[in-house]
Amino acid sequence: MRLLKFTRYGEWWEYKLVPLLFVGYATVMFNNYPLERAGLRILFLLGAIVTGAIYVSVVNDVTDIEEDAIAGKKNRMASLKPIWRGVILTICLLIGVIFGYFIYPDVVSLTLYILAYVVFTLYSVPPIRLKKRGFFGPMCDAMGAHFFPALLMATNLIFFCKANFNIIWISAIGIWSLFYGLRGILWHQYYDRDNDILSNTETFAVAIKPENFKIPERIILAVEIVSLCFILYYIFNIWIFLAIMSYSVLVFIRKLAFKYKMCIVICPISEPYELIMNDFYLVFAPISLLLAQAVNNPYGWLIFCLHLLLFHQKLILILKDLRYFLRMILKKNLSNS
């Protein structure tokens, strides 16, 4: 567990992996392939992506040591000797090579897997270090964290299911994942903007003031939602409808009862806020797809339970909010009676 802390897994475990699982579940459903037969392949791809995510976290921390020290930010890699940093990175790359070996002969998916490593290396490592080169930084992060992994998940499952390569489906997955990834990294950069200014890290968010980014953030969200609609159109069912309605109710409750600010990218530092669609991707969408499979196949419940076992933190937070809201209503009714 102490070793896991060096990977910053708490910052990406659910936020990066669950949307990719959503892509996997949706792709299997789109191709009318039994989820229980593709379950191990999805787990294999998840392991490949986790290895990449650990590499990303470590290489980013290693290259940020000096700047984090200036900003007074904690950096887990700073406490390790350089040789151990190199050992961790080497192990990640070797495990990545092993996963790549088993992805082959699916050349398209193997290429996407390699590109995810390449763009994140370019993002973090000097002298290129695209993190400090304007809009190239957010694009690079979005491609490495979401675009290439999502396409890897979709293309390799299509290869595994021996299904036809549907260009509309792949395009919708790619556009959605890229723009969702853009929102994620831009949110992080703007949230961390003061620290980056302090450490003289010239990110995109440092160069563009928050008040000048209102229109671009709306355009990014609009493209993301349109591409999501294409995805949901092909696999739409009653469970997805219920997921959309449930998420809408949650947003309504948080906005009116808890005074959450609805945000696209720019969020307040000291106020409660809701990143639009975030909980839909992390909780409602994947669970709806799993339920759609489970009600028709008993083995689907095993995958449903495994998913909740591995990814339950956001669901617990939502349930706590709902419980607190019900208590508020009950207390108000008792006080009025």
Topology diagram in text:
Elements: H1 2-5, H2 13-30, H3 35-63, H4 65-71, H5 82-103, H6 107-124, H7 136-161, H8 167-191, H9 193-198, H10 204-207, H11 214-235, H12 238-256, E1 261-263, E2 273-275, H13 278-294, H14 300-310, H15 313-336
Parallel strand pairs: 1-2
Task: Describe this entry's structure for a reader.
The protein is an all-alpha fold. It has a domain at 2-236: Farnesyl Diphosphate Synthase (Orthogonal Bundle). It is 75% helix and 2% strand. It contains 15 helices and 2 strands. The chain has a two-stranded parallel ribbon.
Task: Please outline what is shown here.
The protein is an all-alpha fold. It has 15 helices and two strands.
User: How does CATH name the architecture of the domain at 2-236?
Assistant: Orthogonal Bundle
Fold-level CATH name of the domain at 2-236:
Farnesyl Diphosphate Synthase
Count of individual beta strands:
2
- Judged by helices, strands and strand pairing, the structural class is mainly alpha
The pLDDT mean sits at: 89
Give the oligomeric state of the chains in this entry, treating copies of one chain as homo and distinct chains as hetero.
single chain
Backbone CA Rg: 21 Å
**How much of the residues is beta strand, in percent?**
under 5%
Uncertain stretches: none
Top CATH class of the domain at 2-236: Mainly Alpha
Strand order, sheet with most strands: 1-2
Number of helices: 15
